[in-house]
Amino acid sequence: MKTASRSNRKVQLESYRGLLEAAPDAMVVVNVGGEIVLLNVQAEKQFGYSRDELVGQKVKNIIPQGFAERIISDGTRSAAEALAQQIGTGIELIGRRKDSSEFPIEIMLSPLESEEGILVTAAIRDISARKGAETHLAQMEGRYRGLLEAAPDAMVVVNVTGEIVLLNVRAEKQFGYSRDELVGQKVKNIIPQGFAERIISDGTRSAAEALAQQICTGIELIGRRKDGSQFPIEIMLSPLESPEGILVTAAIRDITVRKSADTHLAQMEGRYRGLLEAAPDAMVVVNVGGEIVLLNVQAEKRFGYSRDELVGQKVKNIIPQGFAERIISDGTRSAADALAQQIGTGIELIGRRKDSSEFPIEIMLSPLESPEGILVTAAIRDISVRKSAETHLAQMEGRYRGLLEAAPDAMVVVNVAGEIVLLNVQAEKRFGYSRDELVGQKVKNIIPQGFAERIISDGTRSAAEALAQQIGTGIELIGRRKDSSEFPIEIMLSPLESPEGILVTAAIRDISVRKGAETHLAQMEGRYRGLLEAAPDAMVVVNPGGDIVLLNVQAEKQFGYGRDELVGQKVKNIIPEGFAERIIADGTRSAAEALAQQIGTGIELVARRKDGSVFPIEIMLSPLESPEGILVTAAIRDISVRQAAEADLLQKIDELNMSNEELGKFAYIASHDLQEPLRMVASYTQLLSRRYKGKLDAEADEFIAFAVDGANRMQRLIQDLLSYSRVGTKGQELLDTSSEEALQRALVNLRSAVEESGALVTHDPLPTVMADGTQLIQLFQNLIGNAIKYQKPGVPRVHISVVRSGAKQWTFSVKDNGLGIEPQYFEKIFGMFQRLHKREEFAGTGIGLAICKKIAERHGGNISVESEPGQGSTFSFALEGVKESHASQQG
Questions:
Q1: Among the listed residues 798, 811, 810, the one whose alpha carbon sits nearest the alpha carbon of residue 873
Q2: pLDDT tops 90 at residue 585
C-alpha cells in the first residue's frame, strides 16, 4: 500500500511539474521562510537567472518588496491566513532581473499544503506592455475629446437603445439645448424620424448591419430644436465598437441654406447672386486685373471685412501669394490657359484676415466668361481643422507604428487580396520569417486554412460583412512556421478602412500553452476537489440565483447538514440575511458589480445550523466566472471563540477602568489621611529645633535638622500627590474661562518668586476657552514657576503666546530662556517623581510636570516640550475654544 501511495504521489508530482512548465507565465513556489523551492522555465527567462541560481535563494532577490511580507505578516497569523485576502486577486509589484533592471509585474498567489508546511505558488506576469498601453490610453482619451469638440459640425453619439451618450458644443448650439439636457435623452427628441430606426431596423439585423448601407453617405432628415422649430439636416453615420456595445456617431450638418438654394435653383438659374450667397464656402469673383468684383456673405465672415471694404480691392489683400499669379501667369497664356490645369483640384494657400491673422485655405478655381472678359470664381474653404487633423494624423502614424511593435502578440495587416502589407517583430519571431520575407506574400503561407477565406467569403458579401460576426471574438486556427512546423493560434480580427480599401488587422496569439492546459483540465478537476476539501474553513459556492452548487466537508460539519441536503438549496437556509442580497443587490447591477466592494474584506454575519442554533461567522467572497455565469465562492469561518474573546476583553477594560478609579480614590484618601500624623511629626521636630538648638552637641543639632527637612519634604510630597489625584477626581466642570484672568491669578500666586528672581513675564492677548478655571491657574503656575526655577545666571524671561490650531482649538506656548533640556529627557520629565537635577541644586518633588500632563489630558489634549540645552524651553498645550453661540452672547 505504501508503495502504491508513493507511486501515486510520484505521478501527481510529475503531473504538477508538467503543469508548472506548461504555464504561460513565470511560476515560482516559495516556502514559509521566503526561499524559492521550485520554478519553471518562464521564470528563468523572465528574471534572467538559471534554475540552479534561484532554487534555495530568498524570493526578495527577484521581488524586493511586498511579496515575502505577505507570506507570514506577523507571528499571530499562519501563511494561509496571511494569503487569504489575496487569493483570486492580482497584486501589482516590481520584479528585479539578474542584471538589476526592474519591470512591473502582476502576481496571483495560491497557498499549497505540503509535508514541509504551507508553500505559496506565485504566477508572475510581466505587465510592462499593459502599463504602457494604459498610459497611452489616458493620453488618447483626452485627444479624442478635443477632436470631438473641434469638429465643425454637430456631433452626437447614440447607443443601441437610441439614447444620447455624448455630444459636442456645436450640437448644443444647433439644437438649442445644454449638454446636461441632452445626455441620456432619446435621440428622437431632436431627430423625430428616420435616425433611431436605422440603429436597429428590425429584429433580424444587428446595429452594424442596419448601418452598413449608410456608411459614408449623407442621410437627409429633419431636426427639431428645443423651441419646437424644425430644420433640415444631413447626417453622416459611423458605427463605433465599445464595451457597452455598438455606438453610433452622427455628424449632423444644418443644410437649411442648401435646401433653400435647391428649392429656388430653377427660378434663380439666371440670378448668379442667389447661388453665390447660398454657397457654404466663401465665394470670391476676381477679374483679370486681380480685383475683387463680387463676393458672398461667407467671404465677409471668413476674412472679417464688410462687402464694401473688399469690392474693388486687390485679391492680394486677402490672399497674399499664389492666387493672383495663377490668373495670368505670363504674357503668352490667357487666363483660361493658366487656369486649365487647376480646374477640379484644390489649391492650398494662406488667407489673411482684416486683423492680419493668417489661416490655411483651399481654393477651387472656375473660369467664367463675361462681357468684361474672363472672370475667375474662387470657392475658398478654411482648412484649419483639417490641417490640425493632418498634423495629428502624422503624429498618430508614428505612434501607431510604435504601438504595433510594442504589442505582446503577433500583429499582421492583410489587404482584401489576402496579401500581408504590414507586420510586427512578434510576428517575425512567432512564424520564423524575416519581415522582408512576409510583406507581399499570401497570408495562406502562414495560416493555411480559415483566415483568408474570411476576408472575402463569397461574391455576395463585402469584407466588412464577412468579418462582422468575428469582431470581438477569438477564432482558433492553425499557424505554420517557416520550418513547416504547426502550432495552435487564436486570432482577433478588426477591419480598418484605408485609401487602398478595407484592410484586416489580425492579432495572433500562440495558444500552445493554453491548449496544453485544457488537455490537463480534466485531470486537474479532481485535484481541485481535493484542494476544496483540504481548506480549513467551510467553503460554499453559490450561483447568481442564490442556490448552493458546491461545498466541502467543513461546511457539512459547521452547519450540521449532509452534502446532499445542501446542494441545490437556497443559501438563505444557512445564512439568513446579508449574503444572498450581495450576490445581486438590485436589477441594475451584475453579480460582479454587487461583489466588487466586498472583495478582500471579511463580512461578519450570522449563520444558522440544521438544529436551528445560530452562531457568528466571517465570510470572504470571491467571484468566479464559469459557463453558467458568475459564481460566488465564500470561505466561511466560525468566529464564536473570537467574539467571546472580544467580549471578555471589553469586560477586562471595564474592570481596569473601575480599578483605576478606585486607585485614584485610594491615592486621594491615603495622601489626605497621612497629612495629620505628618503635620504632628513636623510640628514637634520644629519645636525640638527651636528649643534645643545650640544646647546639645553639634551632631544632635544636625540630626534634628535632618528630621525637620525630611518632614517638610514629606509634607510637600504628600501635598503634590494630593494635587495629582485631585486632577481627575475633584475637577470642576469645563466652562467658558478667561485664560488671561487665569494667568493673572497664577502670577499673583508666584509674586514672591517673580520679585526675588527679577523675572520678566510677558504674554500675548489670551482667548476665552473651555476649561476648569482652578486647574488652568495651576497649569500656568507650574509652568511659569519651573521657568523661573530652572534658570541660568541672568534675568529670567518668560513669554506666554497662543495661536489658533483649528476651527475650535487654541495652542498655548510658555517659552523661557532657562537651562534647557536634552532631547532624550523630553518624555521622562512628564513622569511621576522624575528629576533631572540633584535636590541640593533645585527644590521640588518631581510631580509638577506630571500634574501639568494630567490637567492637559483631562481637557482633551496633551502637553509637549521643545528645547535645546542652554537655549531655553517651550512647553505647549492645546485647549478647546468657546462655542460660537457662547462667544456671540459674551460680545
A1: 798
A2: no
Which of 598, 601, 582 shows the shortest CA–CA distance to 590? 582
Q: What is the mean pLDDT of the chain?
A: 78
- Mean pLDDT of the region 853-882: 86
Strands 26-30 and 117-126: antiparallel
User: What pLDDT is attached to residue 727?
Assistant: 58
- Distance CA(457)–CA(461), nearest Å, equals 7
CA–CA gap between residue 573 and residue 300 (Å, rounded): 79
Q: For cell 440565483, name the residue.
A: 545
Q: What is the mean pLDDT of residues 522-532?
A: 60
Q: Report strand pairing: 760-763 vs 797-806.
A: parallel
The pLDDT of residue 421 is above 50: yes
Residue 88 reports pLDDT greater than 60:
no
pLDDT band for position 730 (50/70/90)? low
Q: Of how many residues is the chain composed?
A: 891
159 closest CA partner among 219, 123, 118, 199? 199
In angstroms, the CA 194 to CA 218 distance is 13
Per the CB < 8 A criterion, the answer to whether 285 and 292 are in contact is: yes
Residues 220 and 195 sit within 8 Å (Cβ to Cβ): no
Displacement of CA 507 from its chain's centroid (Å): 29
- Which H or E element spans position 878? strand 873-880
Task: Return the exposure string of 726-751: e unless at least 16 CB atoms fall within 10 Å of the residue's CB, then b.
Answer: bbbeeeeebebbbbeebbebbbeebe
Look at the block and give the residue holding cell 428590425.
202
Strands 873-880 and 863-867: antiparallel
Cα 587 to the center of its chain, rounded Å: 27
Alpha carbons 737 and 862: distance in angstroms, whole number: 19
Q: What distance lies between CA 554 and its chain's CA centroid?
A: 38
Is the pLDDT reported for residue 398 higher than 80? Answer: no
Question: Over the stretch 223-237, which tens digit does the pLDDT of each residue have?
Answer: 999 999 999 999 988
Neighbouring CB atoms inside 10 A of 365's CB total: 21
Q: Are 122 and 30 in contact (CB under 8 A)?
A: yes
Backbone torsions φ then ψ of 716, nearest 5 degrees: -65, -40
- The mean pLDDT of 71-95, rounded to a whole number, is 64
The pLDDT tens digits of the residues spanning 621-673 come to 888 777 767 888 888 999 998 888 888 888 887 777 676 666 566 555 655 56
Choose between 369 and 58: higher pLDDT: 58
pLDDT in tens, 541-568: 888 888 888 889 899 999 999 888 888 8
From the number of C-beta atoms within 10 Å of its C-beta (0-12, 13-18, 19+), residue 465 rates as middle
Inter-residue contact 276 to 293 (CB < 8 Å): no
Find residue 736's DSSP bridge partners. 770
Fill in the amino acid letter for 755.
Answer: E
Q: Which residue has the cell 534658570?
A: 791
Cα distance between residue 752 and residue 742, in whole Å: 18
Pick from 604, 635, 641: nearest CA to 538? 635
Task: Read off the pLDDT of each residue in 491-510 and give the average, rounded to a whole number.
Answer: 83
pLDDT reported for residue 397: 58
For every residue of 520-549, DSSP letters joined together read: HHHHHHHHHHHHHHH-SSEEEEE-TTSBEE
Cβ atoms within 10 Å of 156's Cβ, excluding its own: 25
DSSP output for 773-787: HHHHHHHHHHHHHHH
Q: Which residue has the higher pLDDT, 865 or 6?
A: 865
**CB-based contact 347:326 (threshold 8 Å):** yes
- Any long-range contacts for 713-719 (C-beta under 8 Å, 24+ apart)? 713/845, 714/678, 715/675, 715/678, 715/679, 715/682, 716/845, 717/845, 717/847, 718/671, 718/674, 718/675, 718/678, 719/671, 719/675
The three three-digit cell numbers of residue 679, written as one number: 503635620
Q: Is the dihedral of CA 846, 849, 850, 855 positive or negative?
A: positive
Please give the pLDDT value at position 344: 47
